What we know:
Elements: E1 7-11, H1 17-28, E2 33-37, H2 48-59, E3 66-71, H3 73-84, E4 89-95, H4 105-115, H5 120-132, H6 137-153, E5 175-180, H7 188-192, E6 203-207, H8 214-217, H9 219-237
Parallel strand pairs: 1-2, 1-3, 3-4, 4-5, 5-6
Helix pairs in contact: 1-9, 4-5, 5-6
Amino acid sequence: MTSSPDALWLNVSPALEELDLPCLRVLSRHCAIAHYQYCISQDEPMCFHEALTLLHDYLKHFDRPLHLIGHGMSGLLGLWYSRRHPERVRSLTLLSVGIHPAVDWQAHYHVQRQLLPCSREQLLVQTVYSLFGYQCTPVTKKLARMLDRDLNHSLSPHTLYRRVNFFPDGVPVPVMIGRGENDVIIDPNSWQGWWLWLKEGDRLWQCPNGRYFFHYFNPKVVAGEIVNFWNHSSRYSGYNRREGLLDLKS
C-alpha cells in the first residue's frame, strides 16, 4: 500500500461510537484519519490479545507509522499496541486514560453495583448523571441505553465479579494524555500519575469543565489540542510529518 492516513481513531466500544464522531469529524478536516472499530459478540471471550493481533494485521499494511487516538478502553488498546509495536506508531493520544489504564466507566459502574442497593436500570441513570451531568429525560434514557449496550458488547476486562488493573508504565512513542477537568472516573491523582513516565515531547492536558466524555462536548477544542500535539511531537518522533497538519490555534 503506497498511501495511508495520518491517524487512526481506535474504538472497542461500538455502542459509544456516536460520542467519538464529533471530534473525529473535526480532525478529518485537517488530516487524513481512519476509524478502526473492534466488535465482539456476547459469546466471545473478553480477550485483548485478539484485538491486538487484528490491529497489528491492519496497521502493518501501511507504509508508515500512524498517530493513534483512543478514549477509555480504546486508549488501553492503543497503549498496549504502542508498547508492543512502537515502530508502527507515530504518536499516541489517550483520552480519559489514567495511570492505571484499565480504570474506566465500567470499572466504576461495577463498584457502584456492588455497593448500592439499586437495579441495573437505576444505576445506569445515575451513571449518566456522573458521566454527562444533568440531561433532560429523553437524553438521559438514550444515554442509559447506550451504556447498557456498552456493558454487553464492548471489549472490557471487567465484570460484576472481577475488576482488572495493570501496573503503570511508560510509552516508547510521543504521548498525549487528556482528561476532563470534572471527570469523576479519571481523578486528578490518576491523571497526574503519568508525570513519572513522561518523556521530552509528551504532554498532559486537561479540558476545562470537561467530564469523562469531554471530547464529545468539546470536539473543536480537543481536536485543536491533538493536532498541535502532533505538530509539536514530530520533532521528537524521528519521522517527518506530512504537509497539511495545521496549527488550529493560529
